[in-house]
Design a protein that fits this description.
Largest sheet: 8 strands, parallel
Bound molecules: flavin mononucleotide
Helix content: 40-55%
Shape: globular
Order of helices and strands: HEEEHEHEHEHEHEHEHEHHHHHH
Distance between the termini: 16 Å
CATH architecture of the largest domain: Alpha-Beta Barrel
């Protein structure tokens, strides 16, 4: 029986056979006392990088530092004073493996300092990260936070300084875009203020906020930020869509580390592939489609353990859609899975519609197990 290969595998094989020089080992990234080895970071993504997703990434390995979704400092403070439960966004944070970064946003240095101190002292997180890159209206126009603050480099510096003081030795990092808009590219000045304020590392997403996700990430601009600071390591981020791209960005743009976001939602094993290439080893192949289906089911179990079956099923629909990205048959699968309401429906759709090697090879979906 001929088994149709996952097209992503054939791309991998083509690369492995191509005349590409082996990657050499790269230096780990030092974020204060935290050693990030390899210097490959899993990006924070609101609504996605919860404990279940991080657990999946951790099981594959290869990410030197994992990050939570961003939390709103104001909501975290409200929950403290009202003795509420910790928000879902801190799910797992106390117990899970380190190193782990927790990201927060606000525009008030005191709020951020207070929550930062809590994260550092009570939650014992490895890194406290500050968001100055979010382009979403609710965070920018409504709360004058996230990327909104890029128009005011001094304010960013003031915030970082206060949080660094409050975290008392636990490294504080920041994540920015290149500016608010093309007419307001402030990344170099902001980076310098962040460095002076004592941050241990800065991640730069190579787009301005007004772009959201359109256009291409400007890695030359990321390299310019790197050249403009003296001590603080810089992590580059934007449009890394394969392990090979990750390695070449790291080599070509002089950054100290790279961060991967969207591609890891479809391929959480990408970190392990980057790590192998950086060690000079062959890239491990993508899991087979059957293995990928098992992975989605494993992820589903993790989500249901926390949120229960009803909410877990609803939440898992978007993750399942992400996993299927780029696989033949994904469109049909997404059409089905995005409508499931119950566990039984989810399992049925996974069994009958998730792209499968055996089904692709032998015809009708009825032959899938
Ligand atoms: C669904 C989604 C949610 C995101 N949430 C956050 C967030 O909470 N904090 C943050 O700093 N960046 C967030 N980002 C931006 C990513 O961390 C990253 O900077 C951006 O996607 C570019 O990287 P990529 O090209 O590898 O996806 C988010 C991106 C996506 C797609």
């Amino acid at each position: 029986m001929t088994v149709t290969a996952n097209p992503r595998d054939s791309a991998d094989r083509a690369w492995n056979q191509a005349d590409v020089p082996p990657a050499t080992a790269v230096a780990p990234l030092h974020i204060g006392s935290v050693v990030v080895d390899p210097p490959v970071l899993q990006a924070p993504m609101a609504g996605y990088t919860n404990y279940a997703f991080r657990q999946v990434v951790r099981e594959f390995g290869g990410a030197g530092l994992l990050a939570t979704e961003m939390i709103a400092a104001r909501s975290a403070m409200w929950l403290e004073t009202h003795k509420g439960e910790h928000p879902d966004r801190l799910w797992g944070v106390r117990e899970e493996a380190r190193p782990l970064a927790v990201q927060m946003w606000d525009n008030d240095p005191e709020n951020l300092a207070q929550v930062g101190r809590r994260l550092a002292k009570d939650f014992c997180v490895s890194v406290v990260d500050l968001n100055f890159g979010c382009p979403v209206r609710q965070v920018t126009v409504k709360a004058q936070s996230g990327s909104w603050l890029l128009r005011d480099p001094s304010r960013v510096g003031e915030i970082v300084k206060r949080v660094v003081e409050a975290c008392d030795g636990v490294p504080v990092t920041a994540k920015i875009r290149l500016g608010c808009a093309d007419t307001c590219r402030t990344a170099v000045e902001v980076a310098q203020r962040i460095e002076e304020a004592g941050a241990a590392c800065l991640t730069v997403h190579g787009r301005v906020a007004a772009q959201f996700f359109s256009g291409r990430a400007d890695w030359e601009a990321i390299a310019e930020v790197k050249r403009s600071v003296s001590r603080m390591p810089i992590v580059g981020n934007g449009d890394i869509d394969s392990a090979e791209t990750a390695v070449s960005r790291l080599r070509e743009y002089g950054v100290d580390g790279i961060m991967i976001a969207r591609e890891s939602l479809a391929r959480p094993w990408i970190f392990a592939q980057v790590a192998a290439l950086l060690r000079g080893q062959p890239k491990p192949p993508d899991p087979s489609l059957d293995e990928q289906r098992e992975l989605v089911l494993h992820h589903y179990d993790l989500v249901c353990q926390r949120f229960g079956v009803d909410r877990g099923t609803q939440l898992m629909r978007k993750f399942a859609c992400s996993y299927a990205q780029g696989i033949p048959g994904a469109r049909e699968f997404r059409g089905h899975v995005s409508r499931v309401l119950t566990r039984a429906e989810f399992l049925l759709v996974m069994r009958t519609s998730f792209p499968s090697e055996s089904r692709t090879a032998t015809a009708g979906p009825e032959q899938a197990k």
